[in-house]
Amino acid sequence: MCGIVGYTGKSKAAPFIIEGLKRLEYRGYDSAGVAVIQGGAFEVAKKTGRVANLEKEAARHKLTGTTGIGHTRWATHGGVTDANAHPHVSSDGKIALIHNGVIENYNAIKTFLLGKGYTFKSETDTEVLCNLIAYHYEKEATVAGESRLLESVRKTLHHVEGTYGIVALCIDSPDELITARRGSPLIIGLGQGENIVASDVAAIVSRTQNVIYLNDREIARLTPGEFSISTLDETDIVPVIDKVDWSIDDADKGGHEHYMIKEIFEQPEALENAMRGRISEDGSTAQFGGLNISPGEFRGIERFMFCACGTALHACMVTEHLIETFARIPVECDHASEFRYRNTPLFRDTLFFVMSQSGETIDTLAALREAKRKGYKVLAVNNVVGSTIAREADGGIYQHVGPEVGVASTKAFTSQLLIGALLALYIGRMRDLSFGAGMRYVNALKGAPDLVRKVLNQAPQIKEIARRYAHYSDMLFLGRLSLYPIALEGALKLKEISYIHAEAYPAAEMKHGPIALISEKCPSVFLAPKGEIFNKIVSSMQEIKARKGPIIAVVTEGTELPAGLADDVIFIPECHDAVLPIVASIPMQLLSYYIAVERGCDVDKPRNLAKSVTVE
Ligand code: M6R
């Protein structure tokens, strides 16, 4: 969840590291820090709050060293204080360390180190790890110069339980970085006379597009001109160098006030990118390049199981609806965090899918590993090329929507919905869905980007509506069938970025309890498109109105609601069932965005959240 940047090269390390931390700030923003080696000592600047605070602090420290490490923190062990911010320096002053993850046995290690005379300034597990490296470094005094730090880190990690992505510096080897991972992503960037390590390519691409994705239980040594990688068990690794296919411009705000609104408006192109090359030549079904499972095998699948977290789980729930409707195969969705511990009875002939924008969510990764351990094939729908989930899955589908920086997922979500719709089509066409129905489905999907543009054009009206609802403390989101997950997503978006308490229900469930919340102080957002249960949803609206609840209704263009029923109406174009969830998501995103802005909230960096959740 935290952000990591390490640099060793010819230029000053601190400006590059701080620039990188700004790009990673969406990962965690309780505090930030940087350490460089200069004049034979560590110079460390760290500060609670945003990277902007660190930048001011760093200016006071005059950081000139050309090797350094930096970190943005999302607190796990210890409160949000300057002392708990990374980097940490060992009490003998030899080692500096940044760390993502959680060291589970840190208490026992700390007791051991206290007995050896090491002292601690913070409450963090990271400082314990740092001192353990210092302890092993001291013991490895006989190891030849260039391997000593590497061997000390290796020894240390053999004693550690938990997860980590770390970068260590040592005062005796001023141009060397040692980096290792287990459970937290790390990427090495190979530059000209400089090498970089970061938790996210966003911090690397301004210098190089040549990267190596470090695997779990691998450790690397970087100097300005060299790098080597081995496993913790000392087997040398022949690295695979990948080329990142996006540039730094893709990760900028492009004139928008926030990444979130930029990404909301990018959705038509994002959908086109997610669809590109995935429609069969005859225009009646979908095709995928990387499933690594033959059509024959696919045809033998009797059940699907989808695991994901947060927004991605909502995309899975819509996919469940579409697969069951169009392919008539049972689908189960589960919270990835629950799946692993529930010990769910599983059927043979089940195909697993995980969905994850980042591809680094630890709960989703754990679900993937658990399913594989049980002998199932697992495919991944994922946006970040080279992510851990992408590499560990047996195959999958990339979303291809470019970097999503806003903590609140938007374009990644609608592209997951589109991929879910393509999957339902692909499976449906293997079974009962006719050629004609397939053609109509494909044409509808092709039209989705334009329909989304149409809803986006209503942003000014939705902004006006949002202004009128920004002062409420509670809201209900109600939808049915494929729009129930969209109601869940609407409520999640609102909670995340505006801190308004919001809940979502299938509209008819509302009268089984939540209706007790209704008064003039609790508005409801109804997703009420044209369709066979439209009249039922209108009845639910009447029940709310009878209790003075304000109503925002999202309805199909041309719909006339009974006079006075809805206080505000947002129109969406009429569309195919496979496209409806995508189109209906847009008003949810815009409403929550404009409400949060009206409330003065920090939309791109909501409190307590991080873009990718890499701790359990
Ligand atoms: O990267 P992932 O898709 O695995 O992330 C899963 C959730 O953490 C994520 O969707 C979260 O709910 C978002 N902040 C939603 O906006």
Structure in words:
Helix 9 runs parallel beside helix 13. The termini are close together. The mean pLDDT is 93. An eight-stranded antiparallel beta sheet has the order 3-2-4-1-10-9-11-14. It is globular and about 80 Å long. It has 18 helices and 24 strands. It has three domains: 251 residues, Glutamine Phosphoribosylpyrophosphate, subunit 1, domain 1 (4-Layer Sandwich), CATH 3.60.20.10; 183 residues, Glucose-6-phosphate isomerase like protein, domain 1 (Rossmann fold), CATH 3.40.50; 140 residues, 3-Layer(aba) Sandwich (Rossmann fold), CATH 3.40.50.10490. A hairpin with a 2-residue loop joins strand 2 and strand 3. With 616 residues, the protein is α/β, with parallel strands linked by helices. Bound molecules: 5-amino-5-deoxy-1-O-phosphono-D-mannitol. The site of 5-amino-5-deoxy-1-O-phosphono-D-mannitol has 15 residues, from helix 9.
